[in-house]
């Protein structure tokens, strides 16, 4: 009973009981957005990178692939992602995605405003974020 009371007091002191903290899972999967299984993590010491990527209006990115696991959150704008197998994903502000790994694809901002996306990469110190074709 003492442990439960301590937990309750701790939660109240951090505002949890008052509803100040909210946790929403934006994406969670063992598959990328196209349904492909995620690869295993590397055996080397991991390195996590977080990048904010801004894609200008009406810009098409070159065909590329990511050799490491990555996920993103669209902060603003809209983006169409197309694989070389013609699978298409439409993203808008507020969407999260688990990106394809080792698959050729490109993105295009068809909108009139820049796209802003925050991307989390899980690789090693030697890992490249992407490789252009």
Structure description:
9% of the residues lie in helices and 36% in strands. It has a 4-stranded antiparallel beta sheet, with no helix packed on it. The radius of gyration is 19 Å and the shape is globular. It is built from 1 helix and 9 strands; from the N terminus they run αβββββββββ. The model has no long low-confidence stretch (mean pLDDT 90).
**Total beta-strand segments:** 9
Rg = 19 Å
What is the terminal separation in angstroms?
62 Å
Secondary structural class:
mainly beta
Largest sheet: 4 strands, antiparallel
What's the overall geometry?
Answer: globular
Please state the average pLDDT score: 90
- Helix percent reads under 10%
Order of helices and strands: HEEEEEEEEE
Q: In summary, what is this structure?
A:
This protein has 133 residues and is mainly β. It has one helix at residues 2-13; strands spanning 47-55, 64-65, 69-76, 78-83, 88-92, 96-98, 105-108, 115-123, 131-132.
């Amino acid at each position: 009973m003492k442990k439960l009371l301590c937990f309750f007091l701790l939660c109240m002191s951090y505002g949890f009981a008052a509803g100040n903290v909210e946790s929403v899972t934006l994406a969670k999967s063992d598959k990328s957005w196209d349904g492909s299984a995620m690869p295993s993590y590397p055996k080397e010491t991991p390195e996590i990178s977080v990048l904010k990527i801004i894609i200008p209006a009406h810009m098409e990115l070159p065909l590329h692939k990511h050799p490491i696991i990555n996920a993103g959150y669209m902060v603003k704008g809209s983006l169409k992602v197309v694989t070389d197998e013609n699978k298409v994903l439409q993203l808008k502000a507020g969407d999260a995605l688990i990106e394809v790994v080792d698959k050729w694809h490109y993105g295009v901002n068809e909108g009139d405003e820049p796209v802003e996306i925050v991307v989390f990469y899980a690789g090693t110190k030697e890992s490249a974020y992407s490789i252009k074709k």
